[in-house]
């Protein structure tokens, strides 16, 4: 943890650039991740404007303090030792609006809600996102996709802040969007908003597609327990879930973490799992599948933070 004097100094600096209600000290990150895993953040900051985001980034640079962007924690495992320095969550930047045949969504909005807004506006193209649990920023970060659609199919441009605190508007082509990846982490961009270019459609037809996708998701995915969604990327020529199932790993449990009995591609927090148990189970699945089928399962989920101290 940061020393007491430094801690007090940083709290004062952070509350100068955003209000006290937006700065939490020693906050348990398990309260902010879909898996319900993770230790404490020294500071968890939830800015409400782009200017506040910019000021926090510049402050972290000036003070030479570690800085981490959390997103909404849907595709993320935070280790039990937590995260040092400033952790920023953009959940309060969650507006979504229409301009012509475009939907513009701030990064803290849920991509599901952007999809619902498109339906309300009778705009076609975002139906695939109706069941993706992440934020808009997170969806760009990993070029999220489902049921044959992905972010790069509909993204026109994005507004970002660089790690130096500069605001840029970038075309989608500049983001290196490929299967479940982008250059956003490598460039250190913080996504502020995304512009999706859609087509005018028929609301009833759009809703029918979304209802069908929602049914498929709810019938196949283990939504009754906390999870980070699909743990592994699809290996070329295979399906991760099928490989895990064929390795007889469904129901395999380490501590409170379990390979879902409903969908083998998911690992659920069945019974107050620790992040350490969850990560151990991911590694066990990877090594078992490698041994049985010679296939490397690459993680789709991000793991960040520090190991717990004894």
Automatic annotation (TrEMBL):
GO cellular component terms, alphabetically, are: cytosol
Q: Which residues cross the membrane?
A: none
GO BP terms: namely: cell division; cell wall organization; peptidoglycan biosynthetic process; regulation of cell shape
Q: Which SUPFAM superfamilies match?
A: FAD-binding/transporter-associated domain-like, Uridine diphospho-N-Acetylenolpyruvylglucosamine reductase, MurB, C-terminal domain
Q: Which InterPro entries match?
A: FAD-bd_PCMH, FAD-bd_PCMH-like_sf, FAD-bd_PCMH_sub1, FAD-bd_PCMH_sub2, MurB, MurB_C, MurB_C_sf, Oxid_FAD_bind_N
What's the main place this protein lives? cytoplasm
What metabolic or biological pathway is this protein involved in? Cell wall biogenesis; peptidoglycan biosynthesis
Please give the family membership noted in the entry.
Belongs to the MurB family.
* Protein role: Cell wall formation.
Question: How is this protein named in the record?
Answer: UDP-N-acetylenolpyruvoylglucosamine reductase
């Amino acid at each position: 943890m940061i020393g007491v004097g430094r801690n007090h100094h940083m709290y004062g600096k952070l509350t100068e650039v955003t209000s006290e209600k937006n700065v939490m000290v020693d906050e348990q990150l398990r309260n902010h991740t879909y898996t319900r895993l993770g230790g404490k953040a020294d500071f968890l900051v939830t800015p409400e404007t782009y200017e506040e985001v910019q000021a926090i980034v510049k402050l972290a640079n000036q003070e030479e303090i570690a800085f981490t962007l959390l997103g909404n924690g849907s595709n993320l495992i935070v280790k039990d030792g937590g995260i040092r320095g400033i952790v920023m969550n953009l959940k309060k930047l969650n507006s979504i609006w229409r301009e012509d045949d475009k939907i513009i969504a701030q990064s803290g909005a849920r991509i599901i809600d952007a999809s619902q807004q498109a339906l309300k506006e009778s705009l076609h193209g975002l139906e695939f996102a109706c069941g993706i649990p992440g934020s808009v920023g997170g969806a760009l970060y990993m070029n999220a996709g489902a049921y044959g659609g992905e972010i790069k199919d509909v993204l026109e441009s994005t507004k970002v802040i660089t790690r130096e605190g500069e605001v840029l508007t970038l075309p989608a082509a500049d983001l290196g969007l490929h299967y479940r990846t982008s250059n956003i982490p490598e460039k250190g961009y913080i996504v502020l908003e995304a512009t999706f270019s859609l087509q005018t459609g028929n609301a009833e037809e759009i809703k029918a597609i979304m209802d069908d996708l929602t049914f498929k998701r709810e019938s196949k995915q283990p939504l009754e327990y906390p999870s980070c969604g699909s743990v592994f990327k699809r290996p070329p020529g295979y399906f991760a879930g099928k490989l895990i199932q064929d390795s007889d790993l469904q129901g395999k449990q380490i501590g409170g973490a379990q390979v879902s009995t409903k969908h083998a591609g998911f690992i659920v927090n069945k019974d107050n799992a620790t992040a350490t148990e969850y990560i151990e189970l991911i590694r066990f699945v990877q090594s078992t599948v490698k041994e049985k089928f010679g296939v490397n399962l690459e993680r789709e989920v991000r793991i960040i933070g520090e190991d717990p101290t004894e």
